[in-house]
Write a structure and sequence with these properties.
Helix content is 35%, strand content 31%. With 306 residues, the chain is of the alpha+beta class. Strands 7, 8, 9, 11 and 12 form a five-stranded antiparallel beta sheet that branches. A hairpin with a 4-residue loop joins β2 and β3.
């Protein structure tokens, strides 16, 4: 029993270390963003999901323009019109939050600003700028009434910056549940985004790039008794003086039997690509396109060959 507890503790500590290192890596990537890319990430902080943010930070700068276009396109509530109504409404709400709630910091970065941006204006507001003795409100308070849940804000410091106040744990959980629901993509329940990892590994006296693609979120088509798709893989390697010294482009077929679909949802498809380079430090850019639905992912990494 003691041995099992030690193994469990070791696994937990190892997982904690991995998560910590991954967080630090993404934090450093975010700090290295130029002003334009950092501004976009700041503007969409309330609606970008963790998977999208990770991809945005890991991809090369040349791919971020396309990412931004696709980011707003996926959220367009009426794609049949030229105007992206969601994007327009989002920035209109940011402007409104800045106009109404700026007090020491931009209004859109306050709790009231976040709520207005994600949930929209409430059906009704109860405002107590001096508090209300009869209601037991000692500080300035606002109560925003939404159909699903009321939201309470209190000006704790008398500075005009109102923060969240929750009546109970259940009230807090219900509120954040509504915030998470507001962040979801229109098509999120239908289709998740596929992801992949790639790394350099020695094999049989040569270096091999190993690409591992998660099968569970790949959009596939049915062919006879299998689910099938094709991945278009493109790799570019640059020297430290930014010269392209190697390139690879090839299509790889991925199959998944119906039995696998039920039993191995967490399985991956591995692609091995051999490279022959002199010892040194290089930058590698990977681009993978799922040809079944034209979904594309890009990542960049520094590799060192001994």
């Amino acid at each position: 029993m003691l041995k099992n507890n030690k193994s469990l503790l070791f696994f937990f500590l190892l997982l904690l270390l991995f998560l910590s290192l991954n967080f630090c890596r993404l934090y450093m990537l975010e700090r290295k963003l130029d002003e334009e890319d950092a501004e976009f990430l700041s503007q969409v902080r309330y609606i970008i999901n963790k998977e999208e943010k990770k991809m945005y930070l890991e991809m090369p700068k040349s791919d971020r323009t396309n990412f931004k276009e696709e980011f707003w396109k996926k959220r367009d509530t009426n794609p049949d019109t030229e105007l992206n109504e969601f994007k327009t409404e989002y920035f209109d709400r940011i402007d409104e939050a800045n106009r109404l709630f700026t007090a020491g910091k931009p209004g859109w970065l306050t709790d009231r600003g976040q709520t207005l941006i994600l949930l929209g204006p409430p059906a009704h507001k109860s405002v107590y700028p001096m508090g209300d003795v009869l209601s037991g409100l000692a500080r300035p308070t606002e109560i925003w009434h939404y159909p699903e849940v009321p939201v309470v804000f209190i000006d704790y410091g008398g500075t005009g910056d109102y923060g969240y106040y929750f009546l109970s744990m259940g009230h807090q959980q219900e509120f954040y549940k509504n915030l998470l629901e507001a962040k979801k993509l229109p098509s999120e329940k239908e289709k998740a985004t596929f992801d992949y990892t790639f790394r350099l590994s020695p094999k049989d006296d040569q270096n091999v790039i190993l690409i591992e693609v998660e099968k569970r979120n790949l959009w596939m088509r049915e062919e006879e008794e299998e689910m099938v798709t094709t991945l278009d893989v493109e790799l570019e390697i640059y020297s430290m003086d930014n010269k392209k010294i190697w390139q690879h482009k090839e299509e790889y077929k991925v199959t998944l039997s119906k039995k696998e679909l039920d039993q191995t949802l967490m399985s991956t498809h591995t692609i091995e690509i051999g490279i022959d380079l002199s010892p040194g430090t290089y930058t590698i850019i990977s681009r993978i396109k799922n040809l079944t639905d034209d979904e594309k992912r890009s990542k960049t990494k520094i590799i060192k060959i001994e």
